[in-house]
Specification:
254 residues, mainly alpha, homodimer
């Protein structure tokens, strides 16, 4: 099943590499492409959701890419000097450090707009609606983070959980799964987002680790992974690849 | 008919004043609301389009507001120090000058996301599709402007024309006018955007005025107004309020 995850990741990489940007973006293209690095966790999750319900994963690629573009948008703007002031991202200069602040602001804008363009290629507006709600949550979460003092779980839910949920839910909407079947999926996605964030905090030594210590944070991550597995067990679908993803997120080291 | 324009503007003002922002945006709300000043030319144009075809203008308010929010988004980001570095907007501090750069970046992001949320309240994704294309054009136009050297008509078409067109076209999509009837409307909107921009240049003493001189720029504006009227005459709808808007844009002094 690890093999299937790698197949899905390769599909995402190929789709993003060949993605034609809106021609009007002109010379923003290199900055937009520079921003599109990453591990593809969210788009792979979107495709694996499609796999589980027997959808054609190729049909879900625009939705998967849209989620990834929203993720990239948030990193490009969060890295700006006025926000987190990060000169590096994934071992390379961040977009503003490489292309300047003005281009980074516009490249972030372009990424979020391109994300909605992709989400809007489906006949149903539901994919884009799911994505816009997650985007608004992330923006609010970043503002909350800037101000400081917010409860960690609320912050994580907005900054990370919302887009993890959207990764799963956009897959369902794109595959036209009726909303009556969404409940356990949304619950699963929530646990997965929490798992991802706690492990992130353990790897970075911040967040939950500062709140409760590393051992307790690892236990919280294991509990979230257990709940994610339990939610998957409730779902009438072939969730073996998703089980694999839960397991990989629980033990990841980067 | 000037009275009807004022009625439409009052509808827009009331809708925007009462617009409930996404709760997750939290403390971004004052900055977002600060950004929402302006003359409401685009949303009034959207509603007047609805009026012309006999649609209920109240039903077009989300589309009209979405267009206005995209306009506000672009101003908030363009005013930033890294871009145009404008401390003032409409006789008041710009969003970054009042709330700081970080909040202004996020408030701009919030405005564009809220715009798509509103555009996505319609059953058809066509309203949001029209808006996303205009948004991408504006972002590309701003990048082109930063780089300098672009032909003025191309720059104006991206930075101003695209959203003027979207103002009209979102009204048609929201009212579910079939695309087979869109041709003359799109042509009208194009002329109106050009008219607006040339008059803007005349009032600011830049753009076309620097290219061809003030008298020639005024003649170009008059010609655009004539063509806009001619396009309206081709349309089978009650275009009297739109005629009024063309006339007002041609002679505006602010």
């Amino acid at each position: 099943m690890q093999q299937r995850v790698e197949q899905l990741r390769a599909l995402v990489e190929a789709y993003l590499a060949e993605l034609a940007l809106t021609p009007e973006l002109g010379t923003l293209e290199p900055a937009v492409r520079h921003a599109l690095g990453g591990k593809r966790i969210r788009p792979v999750l979107c495709l694996a959701t499609g796999d589980a319900i027997g959808a054609r994963v190729e049909d879900l690629l625009p939705a998967a890419a849209a989620v990834e573009l929203v993720h990239s948008f948030s990193l490009v703007h969060d890295d700006l000097p006025a926000l987190d002031d990060d000169r590096e991202r994934r071992g390379a200069p961040s977009v503003w450090a490489h292309y300047g602040e003005a281009t980074a602001i516009l490249a972030g804008d372009a990424l979020v707009a391109e994300a909605f363009r992709l989400a809007l290629t489906y006949p149903t507006p539901a994919v884009a609606r799911e994505l816009v709600d997650a985007t608004l949550a992330m923006i609010g979460g970043q503002q909350m983070d800037l101000e400081g003092g917010a409860p960690l779980d609320r912050l994580h839910s907005l900054k990370t959980g919302a887009l993890f949920s959207a990764s799963v839910m956009c897959g369902l909407w794109a595959a036209e799964v009726p909303s009556s079947q969404h409940g356990p999926w949304r619950a699963f996605a929530g646990e997965l987002g929490l798992l991802f964030q706690i492990v992130d905090d353990v790897l970075d030594g911040d967040g939950y680790v500062l709140d409760v210590g590393e051992d307790a944070a690892r236990r919280l991550a294991d509990e979230a992974a257990e709940r994610a597995h339990a939610r998957l067990a409730e779902i009438d679908a072939d969730t073996v690849v998703l089980e694999e993803i839960v397991g990989a997120l629980a033990v990841r080291s980067t």
